[in-house]
């Protein structure tokens, strides 16, 4: 058992386990017990733990040069920006250290874009149920009252509409002449693996183009292969955002975020408008370049697509007719099993069984396995999670009878 350290601020409700080693989808704790990691450090270790290509890249880079400053040229940053813009069909990238910072950059771009059009008090339209981070502006953008509580006054200049509701978005755009951008996730991760209708993103894109608003996609969780495409927007033909935010899987655990721009968002930020001391330093860029290279070389996007439909079929076979299961959703390696009742206790039960899972939005079992899992590991995840859910539902039924 681990000790609880009172010198660390209690901002997280931590489980009583600490890991000492990782290898692919497997983690080993301080007692030598092994766990199947079906959550990848919350969509971060997309290549699994301690991937040899990332370890090699950062070890070699650490032996050469870790950090200079963004006041100098950084060739690895240029290479990474070229690769990301090519993969996304976008034009330029700014590098930072986290998802919240990537979103902060996007929010600043939206405001400055508004000012350039003579709008003094620009408004950004954001979504119910969204999650964008914990800084003041990104927690304001986040559509979850629990994240706001205690931090009022929130930042001004945000209005909220229901997700996946085009009429509501149209109305908000009509109502707010100061609107400059729409900021949303292509799939809401923390919000419960909510996948919008197939035509939603394309319709948002059209509305943004018609009304000259920036379409700003938060791909912090969905990006870098997570959904079986490089970026989730690539599931929707004809959609390229004006601003896209990345982090999590980009460095496979080495902290790096990015904010990409195209079209009207290019050139909005100029020298002196934004910055980050560590952002895009040689060490984290070497990790991100190794990540992109591995996804290409190992054809992981195809792998995710194939295995995702097998896993989702298997989950449906095991669980979809069970009373207590509301829906089973999947896009690539983002799985959400929504139950009819709160089920947070499943996380501890899973831990005891040697598998790491997550419960979000109270009732949704969320799985974000590494993209590299093989069929056997995929089957183990499906079997263990199905068993856990079935046992939990049976215990709930007994409780309600008693
Ligand atoms: C969609 C999305 N945006 C932003 C963030 C915040 O990222 P970070 O914790 O790196 O600041 C998260 C984190 O879960 C996320 O899922």
Structure description:
The chain is of the alpha/beta class and 402 residues long. It has 2 domains: 52-297, Type I PLP-dependent aspartate aminotransferase-like (Major domain) (Aspartate Aminotransferase, domain 2), CATH 3.40.640.10; 299-370 and 383-402, Aspartate Aminotransferase, domain 1, CATH 3.90.1150.10. Helix content is 37%, strand content 17%. The chain has 12 helices and 15 strands. It is globular and about 65 Å long. It starts with 18 loop residues before the first strand and ends with a helix.
Q: Which radius of gyration do the C-alpha atoms yield? A: 21 Å
Q: Poorly predicted ranges (pLDDT <50, ≥5 residues)?
A: none
- Note the run of SSEs as H and E: EEEHHHEHEHHEHEHEEEHHEEHEEEH
Q: Specify the structural class.
A: alpha/beta
**Major sheet: size, sense and barrel closure?**
7 strands, mixed
Q: Report the bound ligands by name, code or SMILES.
A: pyridoxal-5'-phosphate
The number of distinct structural domains comes to 2
**Count of helices?**
12
Strand order of the largest sheet: 4-10-9-8-7-5-6
> How many strands appear in the DSSP assignment?
15
End-to-end gap:
34 Å
Mean pLDDT: 97
CATH topology of the largest domain: Aspartate Aminotransferase, domain 2
- Helix proportion range: 25-40%
What percentage of amino acids are in beta strands? 15-25%
């Amino acid at each position: 058992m681990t000790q609880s350290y009172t010198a660390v601020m209690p901002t997280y409700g931590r489980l009583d386990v600490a890991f000492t080693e990782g290898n692919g989808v497997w983690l080993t704790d301080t007692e030598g017990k092994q766990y199947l990691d079906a959550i990848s450090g919350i969509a971060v270790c997309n290549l699994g733990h301690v991937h040899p290509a990332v370890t090699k890249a950062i070890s070699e880079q650490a032996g050469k040069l870790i950090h200079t400053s963004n006041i100098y040229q950084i060739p690895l940053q240029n290479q990474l920006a070229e690769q990301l813009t090519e993969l996304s069909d976008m034009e330029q990238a700014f590098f930072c250290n986290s998802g919240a910072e990537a979103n902060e950059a996007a929010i600043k771009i939206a405001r400055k874009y508004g000012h350039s059009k003579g709008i003094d008090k620009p408004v950004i339209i954001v979504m119910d149920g969204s999650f964008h981070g914990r800084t003041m502006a990104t927690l304001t953008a986040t559509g979850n009252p629990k994240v706001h509580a205690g931090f009022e006054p929130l930042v001004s200049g945000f209005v909220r509409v229901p997700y996946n509701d085009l009429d509501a978005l149209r109305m908000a755009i009509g109502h707010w002449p100061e609107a400059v951008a729409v900021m949303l996730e292509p799939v809401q991760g923390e919000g419960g693996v909510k996948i919008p209708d197939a035509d939603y993103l394309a319709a948002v894109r059209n509305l943004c183009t018609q009304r000259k608003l920036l379409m700003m996609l938060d791909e912090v969780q969905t990006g870098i292969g997570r959904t079986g495409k490089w970026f989730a927007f690539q599931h929707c033909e004809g959609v390229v955002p004006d601003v896209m935010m990345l982090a999590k899987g980009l460095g496979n655990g080495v902290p790096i975020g990015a904010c990409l721009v195209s079209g009207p968002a290019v050139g909005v930020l100029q020298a002196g408008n934004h910055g980050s001391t560590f952002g895009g330093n040689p060490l984290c860029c070497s990790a991100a370049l190794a990540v992109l290279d591995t996804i290409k070389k190992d054809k992981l996007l195809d792998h995710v697509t194939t295995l995702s439909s097998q896993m989702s079929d298997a989950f449906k076979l095991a669980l979809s007719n069970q009373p207590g299961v509301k829906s089973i959703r999947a896009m690539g390696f983002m799985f959400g099993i929504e139950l009819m009742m709160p089920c947070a206790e499943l996380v501890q039960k899973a831990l005891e069984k040697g598998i790491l899972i997550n419960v979000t939005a109270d009732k949704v079992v969320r799985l974000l396995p590494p993209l590299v899992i093989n069929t056997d590991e995929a089957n183990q995840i499906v079997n263990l999670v199905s068993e856990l859910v079935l046992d939990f539902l049976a215990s709930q039924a007994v409780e309600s009878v008693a």
